[in-house]
Amino acid sequence: MDIEEDPLGPLDPNFAASFKRDDRRPPCQLYLISPLDVGGAFPDRLARALDAAPDAAFQFRVKDVDQHEAARLAEPLQRLCADREVAFIVNDSISLAKRLGADGVHLGQDDGDPREARSVLGPDVQIGVTCHDSRHLAMEAGDAGADYVAFGAFYPTATKETTHRPEPVILSWWSALFELPCVAIGGITPANAAPLVTAGADFLAVSHAVWGGDEAKMVQSFAAILGGSPDA
Questions:
Q1: pTM of the predicted model over 0.85
Q2: What whole-number distance in Å separates Cα of residue 41 and Cα of residue 49?
């Protein structure tokens, strides 16, 4: 969906310079997003990634498969996450999240309303909303009952087509004003993640940076940046 310019207007670039992360917020954590191909050996790869270092959540993201096939693919991955107390989040589909009894659902701007998701999935399920580069959309998501908001893409990414490129200062602004967690997404690698953590991201959502190489080593590289121990 094409989003018009944020009605709140541009952010003061000096805001970032004066930002200091609130010590009461938990440290930034890793949020893994699946590749589109989660068949074959992928469950073994996910297990390696989850065992390499702490991960807060795993988002199951597949396209162009029916719900029955999606549920079949999700089952072993959901079990791996449950065994490790990692939140299992379904991308896009409220109905699939309900079918699986998932821990959460992540909604794009065209994937349904958080209020609808809450009524279908209940009070305990985590609901995230993609807000691109818009503070206005993020505030609307919060008002609608979202549990977290996602901003991005911060860097070029081949994972999905993007037309929005926020500056890290949006994370600082959000963290300073709202308790609701924010997720940074889009082309994040161990080499470029640090500014997003400094800016106030509560979670780094990563996909290709992990699955495009040795998943265990990449997760450990992120853990080093986030201050987590690979042996945790």
A1: yes
A2: 13
Long-range pairs, 34-39, Cβ under 8 A, ≥24: 34/58, 34/59, 34/60, 34/61, 34/62, 34/77, 34/207, 34/211, 35/207, 35/208, 35/211, 36/61, 36/62, 36/63, 38/62, 38/73, 38/74, 38/77, 39/73
pLDDT tens, per residue, the chain with 232 residues: 444 567 777 787 777 777 888 888 999 999 999 999 999 999 999 999 999 999 999 999 999 999 999 999 999 999 999 999 999 999 999 999 999 999 999 999 999 999 999 999 999 999 999 999 999 999 999 999 999 999 999 999 876 666 778 999 999 999 999 999 999 999 999 999 999 999 999 999 999 999 999 999 999 999 999 985 444 3
Alpha carbons 158 and 3: distance in angstroms, whole number: 20
